[in-house]
Amino acid sequence: MTKNQKHVNQSILIPLIRKTALASALSQVLGFSASIGQAATITVTTTSGDTGGPDCTLRDAITAANFDTAIGGCPAGSGTDTINLPANSIITLTVRDNNDNGLPIVTSAITIEGHGATIKRDVGRPRFRIFEINQGSLELRNTIIRNGHSYNYDSGGGISSNDSIVNLINSKVLNNRTDGESNGGGIHAFGGTVTLISSTVSGNSCYANGGGIDGINTIMTIINSTISNNTGGGFGSGISNFAFPENSSSLLTLINSTVSGNNGSAGVAIYNTRMEMKNSTVTENVSSSEYTGSGIMIRKGNRGEPKEFFLENSIIANNSGRDCSNNTTLTPVVKNTLIGDGGTNCGTPFLTGDPKLKPLRKNGGPTRTHALRADSPAIDTGDDAICATLPKNTRDQPTDQRGRSRTGPAAGPHCDIGAYEFRRRRRE
Questions:
Q1: Residue 116 contacts by C-beta under 8 Å, 6 or more apart in sequence?
Q2: Chunked in runs of 10, what are the mean pLDDT values of the chain (428 residues)?
Q3: Would you say the pTM of this structure is higher than 0.85?
Q4: Within 18-81, where are the H helices?
Q5: Which of 44, 88, 176, 279 could form a disulfide with 148 if both were Cys (CB 3.0 to 4.6 A apart)?
């Protein structure tokens, strides 16, 4: 495998999607390869954001991985490289590595194992984003990206990707921003794929599209993750995914995920893009206009429109304005989904009204969720066949966003809709 071939860690992702209806499609999305080639491990030995020895800095580690050449205190990379960061450390970037970024542009296949580390920009320093990936692959595991601020009105305050693979696993993108008519306060992608698993994108902002995450002609897959409290003034304050009419591969997939408390536009907005939503919760998003969907907004351009979209076993409710708004000629395929206000041209909901959710908080697992109240109509109203396709635990049981089983006596006779599974207390 060459340095620029796309690769993602199979040992982490395959167990999450095995035996699901989307397994084949996701395998293609995530770029699984039968051979991952020879790899090197580079260990960062300092929290310095600078370059040069004798220690191995993160900046030098990325350069060593990109060019398979020793630099500073870092050994040469080889193949698909893993960079290990000091556990629970804070790496503070104070200067631009190049015109726009705090770190070297990733042009090869790199996995960063953060062990709970934070990579952040010093807010008192000049503006720059944290990462840019250009025709490469970056997988962040157990890593926090914070305080990026894109330079010269470029898109992607924390992470910017061009025709690349970006994977976040048990990671967070927090409090990044862009200025002017730029997109993707947290993450921006043009082409390629973006995949989040058990991750959080929160507190990011932009004036245009995708306060949390923005994609253009991008295959975006979000599993067991939370997109919350982001701000976007254009199209999609939480998630935005655009497709040009001639590009039919653009796709947004939401599985066991929560989109909550995003402000300025719809929590989820798609434009000429296919969408598949399964056992997800979209709630408490606020739009600046009562005439557009503040939960989900589906739009078409003048020369085309989405191929298809599915809303299955999900909750879309308690958003300001309309919970779901669709101006295309296609009607979503809706199965066992609660749309609070019934939606506008969003198909026939299984349920309407208040789903009776608790506030967004830590309810177990790595991400925040909205728990169901004991009298929620979402309890036991899911389609068990759909739930059977969700990520599995080690006992081969479908799970909710937290990783809790959706089957068995505590879960009830049927699975619940939305990202959270209500569990009954066992009687003593």
A1: 87, 88, 142, 144
A2: 38 39 42 52 96 94 97 95 98 91 97 98 93 98 97 91 98 95 95 97 95 96 98 92 77 97 94 94 87 82 72 97 89 95 93 98 98 98 98 97 96 97 72
A3: yes
A4: 23-29, 58-67
A5: 176
